[in-house]
Specification:
Distance between the termini: 28 Å
Oligomer: single chain
Strand order of the largest sheet: 1-3-4-5-6
CATH topology of the largest domain: Archaeosine Trna-guanine Transglycosylase, Chain: A, domain 4
Largest sheet: 5 strands, mixed, barrel
Shape: globular
CATH class of the largest domain: Mainly Beta
CATH superfamily of the largest domain: LON domain-like
Number of domains: 2
Structural class: alpha+beta
Number of helices: 5
Helix content: 25-40%
Length: 210
């Protein structure tokens, strides 16, 4: 269960999904303070996507999408100049009800949005997983590589990992996060991939710089 108030970390191009790992480089002073406070507490940070047009007020508190995903900091490497390298693992979606302006960084009162796959949906999700794997495999083969899918990864974790790491626009990723449940997210992801020639991110790489 999420605490009622969590720090939120707005970014213009990153959407976190449950049970997916996300590396981040933290260098802005307000977010250094956020990470330091999180490490002294429950280590929870809420990732949210900035709405279009945020540039004019980036240093302030520009609008964010109300639905985000909370994550727990699983690894933190403090650097000598005060920056951090951290890794966050997605925990649970949330909806922002209001913000608290008492800190330099942003705090939000949130309502948890847990999602579990109903038993009746399990077989359908497994069928859709096979379709997803076929789409990704075809794209990887076109790129001259060999597709590999760990069979031990649960269906919902595979869907969320692909939603986070395949080549999509941030608004498309946000729309996937907002889908009601993993099965709906999986269907929507298949539709997106079938509408385009998919180029996976190279090696599921990189740190997000902020």
């Amino acid at each position: 269960m999420l605490p009622p108030t969590i720090p939120i970390f707005p970014l213009p191009n990153v959407v976190l999904f449950p049970n997916v790992f996300l590396p981040l480089h933290i260098f802005e002073p307000r977010y250094r303070a956020m990470v330091a406070d999180a490490l002294d507490g429950d280590r929870i940070i809420g990732m949210v996507l900035l709405q279009p047009g945020h540039d004019a007020d980036y240093e302030g508190r520009p609008p964010v999408f109300p639905i985000g995903c909370a994550g727990v900091v699983t690894h933190a490497e403090p650097l000598a100049d005060g920056r951090f390298h951290i890794v966050v693992r997605g925990l649970e979606r949330f909806r922002i009800s209001r913000e608290d302006g008492s800190r330099a960084y942003r705090l939000a009162h949130v309502d948890p949005m847990p999602e579990a796959v109903a038993d009746d949906d399990r077989s359908e999700l497994r069928r859709h997983r096979r379709r997803l794997e076929a789409l990704i495999a075809a794209a990887v083969e076109r790129a001259g590589a060999e597709p590999r899918f760990p069979p031990a990864v649960p269906d919902e974790d595979l869907v969320n990992a692909l939603a986070q790491y395949v080549e999509l626009e941030p608004l498309e990723r946000q729309a996937l996060l907002e889908r009601e449940g993993v099965l709906a997210r999986c269907r929507a992801l298949i539709e997106l991939l079938e509408m385009r020639t998919l180029t996976p991110r190279a090696a599921w790489k990189g740190k997000v710089v902020h």
